Amino acid sequence: MMVPASSREPRYAQVAADLRASIKAGEFGEGAQLPTETMLCARYGISRFTVREALRRLQAEGLISRRRGSGSIVSGATQRLRQPLSDLGELLQYAADSQFSFEDRGLVTLTGARAEELGVVDGSPWHHLYGLRRISPGGAAIAATDVYIHPDLSGHVPALKTGPLTLFKQLGELGGFRIGQVIQNINAAAAGSQEALALGIPRRAPVLRIVRIYRDERGRIVEISVSSHPAELFTYSMHIDRS
Amino acid sequence: MMVPASSREPRYAQVAADLRASIKAGEFGEGAQLPTETMLCARYGISRFTVREALRRLQAEGLISRRRGSGSIVSGATQRLRQPLSDLGELLQYAADSQFSFEDRGLVTLTGARAEELGVVDGSPWHHLYGLRRISPGGAAIAATDVYIHPDLSGHVPALKTGPLTLFKQLGELGGFRIGQVIQNINAAAAGSQEALALGIPRRAPVLRIVRIYRDERGRIVEISVSSHPAELFTYSMHIDRS
DNA sequence: CCCGCAAATTTGTCCGGACTTCTTGCGGTG
DNA sequence: CACCGCAAGAAGTCCGGACAAATTTGCGGG
What we know:
The structure is a homodimer.
Chain A: H1 11-24, H2 37-44, H3 48-60, E1 64-67, E2 71-74, H4 88-96, E3 99-110, H5 112-118, E4 124-134, E5 141-149, H6 167-175, E6 179-190, H7 193-199, E7 206-216, E8 221-230, E9 236-241
Helix pairs in contact in A: 1-3, 2-3
Chain A binds a DNA duplex through helix 3.
């Protein structure tokens, strides 16, 4: 009703987007109560099922919290200060807010501990890229990243462009598949000498290392990235809600 | 029907638990296809709504992946090797698999950068505990943890017990409230001299630092914990699924 | 034997309704 | 004034049905 939108995306997503925009525009301040489910049904002219699906998304994003018998209230701003990256959209958005420049390093073979760490079969070949991520094109690097791309997609590597688009998204469009799942493994490590040089930090300084394994809808590994962030510059934040 | 169970928990949760047990018992191997939604409806004598809610939970846990037109398949075991801790149950379970011993350090006042890091008001008082987490009672420490408890709950601190139960769960039972939300902030840091000593690692060695802010259902901060894990011993793993 | 199209299968979206459980506020009672 | 119980309100659970979109399967033709 009040949400024309692309109509190619489901109704609940349109409603969620509309409510999200309202909240971010300040229409509902921190701690304010959202309209009840019944009221939203009337307002958008949709069933309660669709309203609940939309609210479920917002809750998963940490934007609202809901309590039986009480209502839905907007979560405090402090609770969503930092990068959540807990859903696919946010993960892609984070990448869009920064610039990734890389160079092609050709085929490599992953073996031994390195293969096990990345969860690939020992001795398998991968196409290796190396690059730096920055907030602004001229600024300091916030991460040094090794990327390993499945050799079946090697042909598309020359077409990959530096910029705000994620490599995964570009690969998906070039190869004709969609993102299915991302697994993130996070741990601490001491910076290697190359990393330290690239990031401008002392050798063996602590870094946050994030290994992301990207799979398509069939569960096949398409891309693996290993990012090292200087300890002071990066905090990974996430929330867990009841139910 | 086939799931008697406590009946105090919703039907979809019982079905989810039953399917989870079947999968972990090996009834459906890695990559195997689960019965279709219609079949599960018949098998449990429930509506498709309830089946879908159960499957939604399993998908959120990363146990299965689903594709329109294709079915639900059991995710690979390699995808759930490490600690996910992406839902409340898993977070509590992780704690239950280890032992936390602590000592009471009385009231402290959090100020300045420390207060900001933990997301509390500058100068507010908190009840401070300090302890070590181990896999087995005699083994090496896997984490050094500072815990800050809201002063309103100070009276319950003497009743807290060392062991597998989480402090939060104990506090909830003592204070008569339930868990609502947990926020986790993860970053890398260099071990301080006290941490290094307690964990048996070199000073300034990299550690994974996890700050967890526990809130009750009303959104009030009840407990904050700051855990430092030796880099080699701990990897935080999580998955993100489409939709 | 391979390709393309149609049909069957399976999950995704959406509706309307009913009942349950929890919260909140109101008013009556002691 | 403090306490208790009750009623209204709100989200949670569950049902049955319908259609849509994506995938797989099988059939028929080349």
